[in-house]
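#dry-run=false #mode=assembly
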Amino acid sequence: MMKQDPIIRAEHLSIGYENKTIMKDLSFVIPRGDIFIIMGGSGCGKSTLLRTLTGLIPAQSGQIWIQNTDFINATPAEKLEIRKHSGILYQGGALFSSMTLAENVALPLQQYTDYSSDKIRQIVAFKLALVGLAGYEDYYPSEISGGMRKRAGLARALALDPEIVYFDEPSAGLDPISSKNLDDLILQINQTLGTTIIVVTHELPSIFTIGKNSIFLDKTIRTISAKGNPSELLKNPPNRQVYEFLTRGENHEERTK
Amino acid sequence: MERLLRLAFQTPFKEQEVSSPKNSFLESIGEWGIGFCRAVKKGNIFIHQCLSSWRRQLTGRAVYRSKDFWLILSDCGPKSILIVSLISFMVGLILAFVGAIQLKTFGAQIYVASLVTIGMTRIMGAVMTGIIMAGRTGASYAATIGTMQVNEELDALQTMGISCTDFLVLPRINALLLSMPILVLLADFMGILGGCFVCVAFWDIPLSEYIKFTINSFYLKHFLVGVFHGIVFGYIIALCGCYFGVNCGRNADSVGAATTHAVVYSIVWMIVMTGLLTVIFQGLGI
Ligand SMILES: Nc1ncnc2c1ncn2[C@@H]1O[C@H](COP(=O)(O)OP(=O)(O)OP(=O)(O)O)[C@@H](O)[C@H]1O
Ligand SMILES: [Mg+2]
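#status=ok
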């Protein structure tokens, strides 16, 4: 496979629930090894887009290719193969509360591989150390803080060395320092492992530090209203909504005067 | 004050969506009908999924953690013993009291023993256990799985390629199927004990007489019918609890709604099934 292949390509995608369309005509390309930001106001459908890309809800129309597989018409076996190569960090970590951290991280390994339990234990210890949670193997999710829970969720998402990792609002509910540490971790993973990273966020500092590419979902026109590098977008905002979003509501007219 | 008011009116109301025009009467009946049919379809799909999970389990392909199963089993088995015992003891006691007052007019007080035995073993033991377990275990199933839905744990399972009916629903169904018959047995025994207590303590019936009449009116078929009801109820409670948990919304309110629905629907379905089973058993002459 060529390095330049886009890892995900969406064309004229409509997303929504049952008979309610939330966003339509979404077309974007995510290059391999990118850090791709999905931004937009609250309730505009960012999580819905993420759920569609990960196959939790069906797309209403349009097409998605993930690693050159037509994801919408994929057979269950193909979907499983794609899922095996993607990890997701949910908003609150989504750790299973009846299991210890080690068991949580081990679950995808047990599900998708037939490694021996010794090998699984080694991988689990390594992944937990990677996110700075070495020594917390036997803790339950209820016994650790929200930020640690997120990092443990990340360890679980990274368990199978995925090629794509999705993050749903990684910095929501974290203090500025923890969220900066998480950003550093994301950058580090991207640089050392070459993982493609897709982040839903509205945290401006993260958007500018980690984002290489981005799309802006506009609730009023129900589609993408801007694409590109976030810093470039700030320099040449294509429209008022994007400018206001990236500057926390500064008035566009005043600036252009 | 003036500034406050001005501020309040300045706030843009962009977010507000246009409320849909009011539906006509016929339209709302139609909507209700469509909603009802959708719910029936969803319920049937869920039952089908559970049955196929069960089949997979028989061939050893459904995976869940045995640790989870033991935890759930200990919660709905041993930990329910006390409350089931207490309630069925009281039910036996009430049956005996009410029955004895009526039977006394015929001087047939001793038949209280038969009344309590047949009543408890055939149906009351199972019904009381069912109602307790619906409130206790069914509600806890719905709340646990509903909370998992809110925390996106169900999404995480799905994206890991793990079936949530295998992983979450199956151990819960198994735990109830296993513990219900035993709890019904216990309830039967405690009910008879309650009746015995009333007769011996209040109506001066000798203990030996009571035991004799109890043994005389203990039929294996009544007992088995009761246990069968218990198993069916266990299945209904587990299904309702898990169904409303899995189909819970994504906020804390919906967990409350899921719990309420789980209890109400399991009790309604238990009563409906009791009616159906009674007719069927009548037809079979059991
Ligand atoms: N299960 C659902 N069924 C129907 N509509 C839903 C459902 N979940 C969300 N919605 C609607 O979809 C819209 C987009 O929701 P979504 O969660 O994708 O927003 P978001 O961009 O992630 O917002 P936030 O930044 O607050 O997380 C909302 O208007 C919401 O009302
Ligand atoms: Mg969201």
